[in-house]
Structures are given as C-alpha cells and as structure tokens.
Amino acid sequence: MICISVLAGLSGAIYFLAAQMISTGALFLIGGMLYHRRKSFRLSDYGGLAKSAPALAALTLFMIFTYIGVPGLSNFPGEFMSLLGTFQTSPWPASFATLAVIAAGVYGVNLYQRLFQGPTSMGSRDLDNLELFVLVPFVAGVLWLGLGSAGPLRHIESQASLTTLQLERAATASELERVTSALPLLAESAAPSSGEGGAR
To answer: Residue 100: is it exposed, middle or buried by C-beta count within 10 angstroms (0-12/13-18/19+)?
Structure first.
C-alpha cells in the first residue's frame, strides 16, 4: 500500500521544482534589468529605487514573495506538501528545512529593503513596454500555479503514485531475492543437525 505521506512529499517536491523554474527565472531577469540600470551587482550601489521605478519594485517584491513561498503564489503548494510529507517520515530534516524557509523569508525582505527602500543618490527608469511584456507571463504563471494548483497536482499525483508503486515493487522483489538466496544456506546448516538426531 502506498504511503500517503510519501506520495504527498513526492508530489509536492515535483510541483515545487516546476514552480521554482518560474520564480527563479523571473528573478534572474529582474537582476539583469537592475544591472542594466546601475551597471553593478553590489547592493551598496542601490537603494531607494522604489521612488523612481515603482512598477519594477512591485514586481520584484511579488517575485520575492513567490520565491519564499507566500500562500496563494506558485511555490507555496509544493513547498507545503513536500514539508508535510517530510515531517511525517523524517521530522528532524523537515525542521531544518522549515528553518531554511524562514531564513529565506528574512533574506528576501532584507534584499528588497536594500534595493528599493531608503535614500538614493540617483533615480532609475521604470519598466518599459518590452520589460513588461517579458515579465507579465511569469506573473501569470505564478498566479496560475498558486491559485489553480488542483489541476496540475492531479496529473503529478498520478505519476508520483505510479513511481512510488514501482519503487515498492522493486524493494519487495529485492527483499524476496535476498530471502530466497538465503534459503539454501539455511538448509545446509540444518542438515547436520537432523542427521545427528536420526543417529541418536
């Protein structure tokens, strides 16, 4: 019988990897857009960008929230299910993973503050039409996977249950082969004892 916690964890992990492709790709693109404006990757060269580029600030915060797993966005269903499945089988690793999620949230908020809040020495242009055209599909994908996760999860769970069943069958076959290979050794060890009993 397939363990529900294992199935939930496996389905959540697959879903989380798919969602991470969207949020990570969007953050890489935003990083490139920021570099194009300031020609630097040092955080000390940024700050206060929200005043001159509010749309860029809003989309960056949206993607940071997505990355750290805010409910309603794409990374949350897979993150929650994978942690839930791990807690039921391996509580200690799941506890460390939960702490990592909290640390990622703290880091993400701090990153946003250093990029877009505080004083600024120079302004930056906001998103143009081409940049919006590139980022809007990522926003749509985040909302679709976050709010409409039931459909994709059904397909993932069907494949995950098949994978789990195949792994269980392989483990059973391996155990059966190990027991079968041990039977001749047991018979050989038991044969002298039975012979001695007959002689007596």
So the answer is: exposed
Task: Compute the distance between CA of residue 174 and CA of residue 164 in angstroms, rounded to an integer.
Answer: 15
Q: How far is CA 163 from the centre of its chain?
A: 19
Contact 46, 9 (CB under 8 A): no
Who's near 90: CB < 8 A, 6+ residues apart? none
DSSP E strand stretches across the chain: none
Q: What are the sequence ranges of the domains in the chain?
A: 4-194
pLDDT in tens, 16-26: 988 999 999 99
pLDDT in tens, 142-158: 999 999 888 888 888 87
Say if residues 131 and 30 touch (Cβ distance below 8 Å). Answer: no
**How many C-beta atoms lie closer than 10 Å to residue 157's C-beta?**
19
Residue 86, both tokens: 């791990």
Q: Which two tokens stand for residue 96?
A: 């460390």
For 29-83, what is each residue's pLDDT tens digit?
999 999 988 888 888 888 888 888 899 999 999 999 999 889 999 999 989 888 8
How far apart (Å, rounded) are the C-alpha atoms in residues 45 and 12?
38
118-122, Cβ contacts within 8 angstroms, sequence gap of 24 or more: 118/47, 118/48, 119/47, 119/48, 120/47, 120/48, 120/49, 120/51, 120/52
